[in-house]
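Internal tracking record. Fields below are filled automatically when a chain is submitted to the structure queue. Please do not edit lines marked as system-generated. If the sequence contains nonstandard residues, flag them in the REMARKS field before resubmitting.
Queue: standard
Priority: normal
Entity type: single polypeptide chain
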Amino acid sequence: MSANTSLVIELAQIPPEGLAVDTDLDAGALHLEADGAFELNAGAHLVCRIERGEGDSVHVKGRFTAEAGLGCSRCLERSLFPVGQALDVFYLPRIVDRTVDAEEEDDVELSDHDLVVAYYEGGRFDLGELVREQIVLSLPMKPLCVEGCRGLCLQCGANRNQHDCGCKPLADPRLSGLADLLGPGSK
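SYSTEM-GENERATED OUTPUT FOLLOWS
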């Protein structure tokens, strides 16, 4: 597979000895064109082996590496965050007709095997969706450009990592009663 190709795998195209995938990843293959949460940096890569299992199961084992461009949650500057993860997933056919009672659904326990299972429909599955999901799960909830990021000034909007704007810190009006208790000079 080459870059800019779809990562949709047809089960009928997986030979008995398995299928080796070694490809560069792009935003199109991972369905990130409309996702503004992060950008995929050039150089993302997927290496995996796909093997048919018992019945209609498929085993995907490999690794992806990528760099995602995210805005810092304090200063909004774009920074690169390396992400990479081993993949070890079993694909099973989705059973559409299964009806589950609400009471029965509450009592379901997940085993370790259930946590590495994905489902496919129509005799094919999309590795791009799997990799996108793993990248999103690997990204920090509140990304920081650097650990001690000082963020933006609340008054003038200047990036305080680049220069000190000289604005005085705003006093929280909810704490004015506490300042009165502490006496003069505490404001």
